Amino acid sequence: MAYTRYKGDPYWKRAKVGGTSADGTPYAKGDRVFFYPRSGATYAGDAASRASAEFDELASLEG
């Protein structure tokens, strides 16, 4: 991951409360989720892994 980080970039975090991710996957308090601060979208489970990989791929193309 050798790319420039910007304010507003998505990141991994632990959920402070339970909820439902953007794709409808439920998650519990303490689960590891991928969070997009600009839109407020949260992804959990397999969708979180896919969202993280997609962001990393697109960020690496910025150059």
Automatic annotation (TrEMBL):
Domain of life: Bacteria
Name listed for the protein in its UniProt record: Uncharacterized protein
Source organism: Sphingobium cupriresistens LL01
